[in-house]
Amino acid sequence: xxxxxxxxxxxxxxxxxxxxxxxxxxxxxxxxxxxxxxxxxxxxxxxxxxxxxxxxxxxxxxxxxxxxxxxxxxxxxxxxxxxxxxxxxxxxxxxxxxxxxxxxxxxxxxxxxxxxxxxxxxxxxxxxxxxxxxxxxxxxxxxxxxxxxxxxxxxxxxxxxxxxxxxxxxxxxxxxxxxxxxxxxxxxxxxxxxxxxxxxxxxxxxxxxxxxxxxxxxxxxxxxxxxxxxxxxxxxxxxxxxxxxxxxxxxxxxxxxxxxxxxxxxxxxxxxxxxxxxxxxxxxxxxxxxxxxxxxxxxxxxxxxxxxxx
Length: 310
Prior knowledge:
This protein is of the alpha/beta class.
């Protein structure tokens, strides 16, 4: 099927039936959630003023706004701006302002997840002093996070957790994939407030679980410290006894879906594809659409039809 035909059929026909969610979907109103709804996962946007990214992002925003049924909300998956890690202050602010001006055109609420490229000035060659009031994650917290770099919220019987999956690396010259001790304490307290049967969806920029590195480099290949969350085992142990059903992931710009016992780990490709230079390997520019019915869900990946210049 041609890309434009797929886009047309997806928008008109609804994306919820594209992939089964580990068994038949429950009828609307069944399960503890008792409601049906849709949400969208937009990750790895990498918006630079100098690229055609603004054109691409606005096309993606238009595709989200045109979905039928309309999503209740959007969750972004990190790496929203081009690269604040190595940017000076004026450049970083310009990237964040451009991103906010585009994403504000969505017709539904947006919840933001932080990515490594959304962290201001961590690379030493940025020239930014650690004493700067917006240094590090503070720029994201101030402009997109409501004062936080991790959070949770509830929607129609589901509980959503948005992780901050980056910490400074050992040499303080960049980042590694890690969920902080402070965040793990918060996570335990957050889960303590839930009924154990409440369905949970988690979002992390750097993946907790992924087979992409083994797929491309061989079965014994290991991730670098910046490629996956190094203490994901600790994070997932906190969820034992709770109803974690879905983990949405990004960072690698590839489509991937894994199921470990009752948890589905889904990587939603990238809105920017290969950083606005076309598809990344075999993953087209796109975003994830999740249709929820009761305590079950289905996932689809939408190629929204953007093409790079040849």
